[in-house]
Amino acid sequence: MAHVGGGVQTARMPELPEVQALADDLRGRLVGRRVRRLDTYAISALKTFDPPPRALDGGEITGVERHGKWLDLAVATVGDAPAELHVCIHLARAGWLRWRDEAPKTRPRMGKGPLAAQLMLDDDAGFDLTEAGTKKGLAIHVVRAPSDVHDIATLGPDPLGDDFTEDVFGAVLDDAGRAQIKGVLRSQRRIAGIGNAYSDEILHVARMSPFHPASMGADDRHRLYVALRETLRDAVAARAGVPASSLKSEKRSDMRVHGRTGEACPVCGDTIRQVEYADSTFQYCPTCQTGGKPLSDRVLSRLLR
Question: Domain Formamidopyrimidine-DNA glycosylase catalytic, which positions (predicted)?
Fold first, then answer.
């Protein structure tokens, strides 16, 4: 398993389909194997202290699940008071995961380089968690239940869950009111797992402006619901069985508009445009989504004053 993750503008940040693929891949590699230890090398990465990482030593990995963009490794611990613990991991913008079949030849130094943590199995296999750049967001929580992690406990409904009906989606939109739909789709407390890239894709499929208010008519609501479910289902299906080393390129190659500023829209041929903010961008097709009208790029507008 090679690196997965990356920056916003290149569509590398893992979202629901990529994290689902990671969970499926890791489930096949990890379940039934025992943890030798979890070592952390970036102080900022480990967000919890009770239970300590040493409580995982010797425990058997019993499951790997996904909660939104979070990975969840369940570990049945050993000792005088056996229990189930969970290692919950969020890769953030620049977090990467690399599988190893053998133990590293040397013990890394704390705080040196991009290495954030290593999970070692009892047969020397395992994986490294790394994070590039200076802005650190990768998070590791060792907890007794996933709900002990605030950002997991407050997640909205999973958009691919059987219980995510059109009525549930409608309630989310009603609650958001006049908020811009792009931000609503990205809000983890409203809907779990969708980020910058897939919100662009969903809105393009739905032929809807990113600035459209969440309050909308029944026809628009239905069209957006279908686009959301189909876009995510297709992406999950496309990544099933894909080696994690290929997830970044697979995600990029499947994008219709995200990360494709200046290219031709695959539907109408118009030029894909972008709007840039301080720390992110989004892409859209004017013909398909905004009636041919380019949206105001606030950063560009400031530069042209």
Answer: 14-161
CB–CB of 264/287 below 8 Å?
A: no
Digit-coded pLDDT (tens) for 24-68: 999 999 999 999 999 999 989 999 999 999 999 999 999 999 999
Query: Beta-strand (E) ranges in the chain?
Result: 35-40, 60-67, 70-76, 84-90, 95-100, 115-121, 126-131, 139-143, 273-276, 281-284
6 within some domain? no
The range of the structural domain enclosing residue 297 comes to: 166-304
The whole-model pTM stands at: 0.88
**99-152 per-position pLDDT tens digit:** 999 887 777 777 667 899 999 999 999 999 988 877 789 999 999 999 999 999
**Is residue 123 located within the same domain as residue 24?**
yes
Half-sphere exposure of 95 (CA within 13 A, CB side): 26
